Amino acid sequence: MSETKMPAIEAENELVSYEFAFHILPTVAEGEVTSVFDKLKNHITKIGGVITDEETPKRFDLAYEIVKYLEGKNRKFGSAYFGWVRFRLSSSELNELTETFDETKELLRFLIVKLTKVEEQHPFRFHDSIVNKQVRIITDEDIEGDEEVVEGEETEETVEGEDRKEEKETV
């Protein structure tokens, strides 16, 4: 009989690295965003998580409107406070944390992802990248009339232009 090696299963008590990215509702007063952020971090530490890095939430315009059911009706939001927290936590505690965040009324949306070793060492600072122009927000004005021609790709204009050149040369 051949011996097969099974992938290692994470130990029950082993801490795993995660990133919790979130949008706080824009209806939260700017002065209260810090207390909501602290409340989110306290949820992580209360169940045994160790916070390793964070980016404080700042308000910005969303790429598209997000609909959330609040106070008996669907509401659309075009901006939010975005931030993230990196932490280490036992995988057995993750469901409890997710349920806690699901019940947090100030959150518009959130995502928890497991980090690789490389991702752990190289966090992406969203707000800094916008300030330093490393990330550019594309507006509708940028898109209108901005047709990109890929090298080697022919458009009607280039084909017509080439035909005209050929006609002039043959005359």
Describe the overall structure.
With 171 residues, this protein is an alpha+beta fold. The protein has a single domain (15-143), classed as Alpha-Beta Plaits. Helix content is 31%, strand content 33%. The chain contains six helices and four strands; from the N terminus they run βαββαβαααα. It has helices at 33-46, 94-102, 117-121, 126-131, 140-143, 156-170; strands at 15-24, 50-70, 73-90, 107-114. A four-stranded antiparallel beta sheet has the order 2-3-1-4, with helices on one face. Mean pLDDT is 78; it is low at 152-171.
How many helices in DSSP terms? 6
Strand order of the largest sheet: 2-3-1-4
Major beta sheet, specifics? Answer: 4 strands, antiparallel
CATH superfamily: Ribosomal protein S6/Translation elongation factor EF1B
Please count the beta strands (DSSP E, at least 2 residues each). 4
Helix-strand sequence: EHEEHEHHHH
Radius of gyration, in angstroms, nearest whole number: 25 Å
Shape: globular
Low-pLDDT runs of 5+ residues are 152-171
Which fold does the CATH topology refer to? Alpha-Beta Plaits
Mean pLDDT: 78
The share of residues in helices is 25-40%
Q: So what's the CATH class?
A: Alpha Beta
What is the beta-strand fraction? 25-35%
Gap from first CA to last CA: 83 Å
**CATH architecture designation:** 2-Layer Sandwich
SSE layout:
Elements: E1 15-24, H1 33-46, E2 50-70, E3 73-90, H2 94-102, E4 107-114, H3 117-121, H4 126-131, H5 140-143, H6 156-170
Antiparallel strand pairs: 1-3, 1-4, 2-3
